[in-house]
């Protein structure tokens, strides 16, 4: 008899729509909620899941937060839940908002980290 068993990691995006001002970058963004888990496969068919963890990714800057498991489970069941900042713990920082700088000489604006204006060559502040 031949038996095929495997263990794999999985991810499932959850349906949640909430517009917020990001605490990291200060821009408007949406929470993208997802669940990660480990699952047992029997003949490539998922049979059992464990180790569920819930995360929120910001659409604006990509910062990832771990979500309170109780709140995540309610979202997974399809309940309308408002995620509060107290439900989140930072897991991976995304890119922070970049400051827009303006050249005094020519007025060129950039958010890049230049020492000199790429248009006229004058030092940027």
Describe it for me?
The chain folds into 2 domains: 88 residues, no CATH class; 28 residues. The strands form 2 sheets. Strands 1, 2, 3, 4, 5 and 6 form a 6-stranded antiparallel sheet that branches. Helix content is 6%, strand content 43%. The protein is built from 1 helix and 8 strands, in the order E-E-E-E-E-H-E-E-E. The model has no long low-confidence stretch (mean pLDDT 89). With 125 residues, it is mainly β.
Give me the secondary-structure topology.
Layout: E1 5-13, E2 19-21, E3 28-42, E4 45-58, E5 64-67, H1 69-76, E6 88-92, E7 101-102, E8 109-110
Antiparallel strand pairs: 1-3, 2-3, 3-4, 4-5, 5-6, 7-8
Number of domains: 2
Rounded to the nearest angstrom, the radius of gyration is 22 Å
Number of helices: 1
Helix content: under 10%
Average pLDDT confidence is: 89
Structural class assignment: mainly beta
Strand content: 35-45%
> What is the distance, rounded to the nearest whole angstrom, between the alpha carbons of the first and last residues?
73 Å
- Count of strand segments: 8
Shape: elongated
Question: What attributes characterize this protein structure?
Answer:
six-stranded antiparallel beta sheet, 2 domains, 8 strands, two-stranded antiparallel sheet, 1 helix, elongated, mainly beta, 125 residues
Summarize the structure.
The protein is mostly beta strands. The chain folds into two domains: 5-92, no CATH class; 98-125. It is built from one helix and eight strands, in the order βββββαβββ.
């Amino acid at each position: 008899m031949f038996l095929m068993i495997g263990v794999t990691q999985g991810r499932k995006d959850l349906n949640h729509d909430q517009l917020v001002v990001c605490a990291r970058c200060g821009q408007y963004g949406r929470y993208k909620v997802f669940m990660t888990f480990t699952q047992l496969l029997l003949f490539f068919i998922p049979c059992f899941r464990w180790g569920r963890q819930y995360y929120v990714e910001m659409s604006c800057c990509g910062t990832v937060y771990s979500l309170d498991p109780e709140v995540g489970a309610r979202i997974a069941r399809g309940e309308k839940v408002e995620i509060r900042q107290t439900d989140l713990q930072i897991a991976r920082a995304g890119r922070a908002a970049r400051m827009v700088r303006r050249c005094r000489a020519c007025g060129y604006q950039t958010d890049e980290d230049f020492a000199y204006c790429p248009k006229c060559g004058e030092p940027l502040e």
